[in-house]
UniProtKB/TrEMBL annotation:
GO MF, one example: acyltransferase activity, transferring groups other than amino-acyl groups
PROSITE patterns recorded: GNAT
Keyword Acyltransferase: yes
Record has Protease as a keyword: no
Name the UniProt record assigns to this protein: Ribosomal-protein-alanine N-acetyltransferase
InterPro entries: Acyl_CoA_acyltransferase, Bact_Acetyltransf, GNAT_dom
One Pfam family it belongs to: Acetyltransf_1
Species annotation: Panacagrimonas perspica
Length: 160
């Protein structure tokens, strides 16, 4: 994203298209580790077992999310969430997660799980606000050796 931040009212979340792959790859390059390859992104965008959402504003791709829907699972899994660092604070992550949760409910999933870096306080606060709770600690989960947390949000009843 170059120049000024887009207006919050101009930000839209939609299903990703193959034409979005280069911009998604450019977003991945902004982060130091655990990046997806162009092959992985293309596979997710076209897979029946995944839903990929992008957030756009003023013609720029500002973020994306990959939701996995395994055939024999009652849960959906948020595999990846990326937001352009220059677009932080606009609610993009929240809107992407909200879209993923709607998709999971439409697919009759009982919960959404995800992994998050234990040291990512901003993401953890977002997930806590949306009702995610810690299910498991994941020592040295990330490529750089950072610990992770497995979080879950149950749709029916309460979280365990």
């Amino acid at each position: 994203m170059r120049g000024r931040q887009p207006s919050v009212s101009r930000i839209r979340v939609r299903a990703a298209k193959l034409a979005d792959v280069p911009a998604m790859l450019a977003l991945e390059a902004l982060f130091p580790s655990d990046r997806m390859s162009v092959r992985s992104i293309r596979r997710f965008v076209t897979a029946a077992s995944a839903r990929v959402f992008v957030a756009t504003g003023d013609e720029a791709l500002l973020g994306n999310l990959v939701l996995l829907l395994r055939a024999r699972s009652t849960k959906a899994r948020i595999y990846s969430v990326v937001v352009d660092p220059q677009a932080r604070g606009l609610g993009i992550g929240n809107r992407l997660v909200e879209a993923a949760e709607r998709a999971a409910k439409c697919e009759r999933r009982s919960a959404v799980t995800l992994e998050v870096r234990a040291d990512n306080a901003v993401a953890r606060a977002l997930y806590a606000k949306r009702g995610y709770i810690e299910e498991q600690r994941l020592p040295r989960f990330y490529n750089d050796g950072a610990d992770g947390l497995k979080l879950i949000r149950n749709f029916k009843g309460r979280n365990p």
